[in-house]
Write a structure and sequence with these properties.
The protein starts with a helix and ends in a 7-residue tail after the last helix. The protein is an all-alpha fold. Helix 9 packs across helix 10. It is built from 10 helices and no strands. The protein has 2 domains: 65 residues, Cytochrome c-like domain (Cytochrome Bc1 Complex, Chain D, domain 2); 91 residues, Cytochrome c-like domain (Cytochrome Bc1 Complex, Chain D, domain 2), CATH 1.10.760.10. It is elongated and about 60 Å long. Bound molecules: heme C (2 copies). The site of one heme C (HEC) has 21 residues, from helix 8 and helix 9.
């Protein structure tokens, strides 16, 4: 009769696991809850720019819970307290991020190439396999944005970074495309021009 002790151990393990999970959810700090539960649908910035009193925050958190924010009933008050303490109606409005004209230009300014010059012919094939499904056969965009004659084509570091790491709904290609293949695709996309008509 080995089955009984095994079963007992199994039940004990399950119980402690469930207990640990329950503990976890009640010790999740309001800060963590906001990061994990509120960011499902919108950016935290959207929350940070609000200035509401405690009651208004409570109503807001209840409303968001009603809309699907995964927050337990016993966490609602703590989240509202946290939000009222950090983004309360008694606090000054959030300062908008200010970017000087020079800084704005620097974000899109061309930079000298350091990727080895690629082959547009190889790039064309690689592009068709890896990118066309989202950016369209002609790179003029579909699910992903139009890539033709974009500032990023003159900023190899940003180009490399987006392709290696991906961005939001775009997957990264680390381990899939080599540096020289990334340069090949760049060479092909650079060869494309915006045309009007036809
Ligand atoms: C299931 C999706 C979802 C989740 C999760 C969610 N929200 Fe929202 N939230 C929305 C939508 C949709 C809007 C309306 C956006 C608009 O009007 O553009 C909104 C709007 C807001 C607003 C602006 C005021 C308003 O009521 O329109 C605040 C503040 C806000 N949410 C806070 C939160 C907080 C805090 C959490 C986490 C507790 C959260 N949201 C989680 C969907 C969500
Ligand atoms: C599953 C769809 C998908 C695939 C596949 C895909 N992309 Fe994207 N790409 C996107 C989306 C969506 C964005 C916009 C990301 C964002 O900013 O939210 C994007 C953004 C980009 C950007 C940034 C554009 C800019 O001006 O900042 C570049 C560059 C880019 N993709 C190149 C590529 C290349 C090259 C490939 C193939 C190796 C590729 N993408 C494959 C969907 C995709």
């Amino acid at each position: 009769m080995k089955i009984l002790p095994t079963l007992a151990i199994f039940i004990a393990v399950c119980a402690s696991w469930t207990y640990a999970r329950a503990q976890n959810s009640s010790v999740s700090s309001p800060d963590m809850l906001i990061q994990t539960s509120c960011r499902i649908c919108h950016s935290v910035r959207m929350i940070e720019q609000q200035r509401l009193g405690r009651d208004a925050w409570l109503a807001e958190v209840r409303k968001m819970k009603g809309w699907g924010a995964p927050i337990q009933d016993d966490q609602v008050a703590a989240v509202a307290d946290y939000l009222a303490a950090h983004y309360g109606s008694n606090l000054p409005p959030m300062r908008p991020q200010v970017l000087s004209a020079a800084e704005a230009i620097a974000v899109i300014a061309p930079e000298p190439d350091e990727l080895k010059a690629g082959s547009p012919a190889r790039g064309s094939r690689l592009y068709a396999d890896a990118c066309a499904s989202c950016h369209n056969d002609d790179a003029r965009g579909r699910l992903g944005p139009d890539l033709v004659q974009r500032p990023i084509l003159l900023r190899w570091r940003d180009w490399d970074d987006v392709i290696i790491r991906g961005r939001r709904s775009m997957p990264g290609f680390a381990g899939v495309l080599s540096q020289s293949e990334i340069a090949d695709i760049l060479a092909w996309v650079r060869s494309r021009r915006v045309t009007f008509g036809n």
